[in-house]
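Project standup — Tuesday

K.O.: blocked on the structure for the chain from last sprint. Re-posting the sequence here as requested.
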Amino acid sequence: MTWPISIIIPVLNEATSIVAALQALQTLRTECQIIVVDGGSQDDTVALATPWVDCVLKSAKGRAVQMNQGATKAQAAILVFLHCDTHLPKEAVPHIRQALAKDYQWGRCDVAFDSPKCIFQIIATMMNIRSWVTGIATGDQAMFMTRAVYEAVDGFPELALMEDIAMSARLKKLSRPYCLKINVITSARRWLTQGIMRTILLMWWLRLRFFLGAHPDQLAALYYPRH
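H.V.: unblocked you, prediction finished:
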């Protein structure tokens, strides 16, 4: 079967949420190849994901590494990189195809959170405005691109953190992103668990340090909680 779009989802220890996330994508199965790339889960993520996708791959840990691994098995001319805790609405798919059939080579969606708290509406609005102004997309915004442009920039830089920022910088050298005004819905769980203001300040601090040249491994140690 030939698909117009391949959706690549990097996962790690997502047993509690993987089934619901993949069930939400089932209406897209007729036009989208769904690929899950596991980074070494110690739970039942792989077994739970297998019945709901077209392909499950195993990879070294790291979102960038996993997404690049998924791209090697993708059969479509359009690649969508989707976080496990982000929902891609069905109506986004034809708009992605239309955008990339024109003059655009890559893009991202607007983002909203799955929490009714007003603060998350403000955060999402600021994220979308910042992305529109800077041309920088984040992984939560379901980055999409043609296979040709993905290959032209040699895929995602295999960094421990900020791979989405670095990838945007590569892609921006070729063209501005298409900013799709359809919301993907992403989870607020990290914000609620770690604290909203703490997470905001942490992200600002990490971005600043990244732009000032800090090594992504150091930033990843601050971002990912220790177990």
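K.O.: great, moving the ticket to review. The radius of gyration is 16 Å. Residues 37 and 57 are 5 Å apart (CA to CA).
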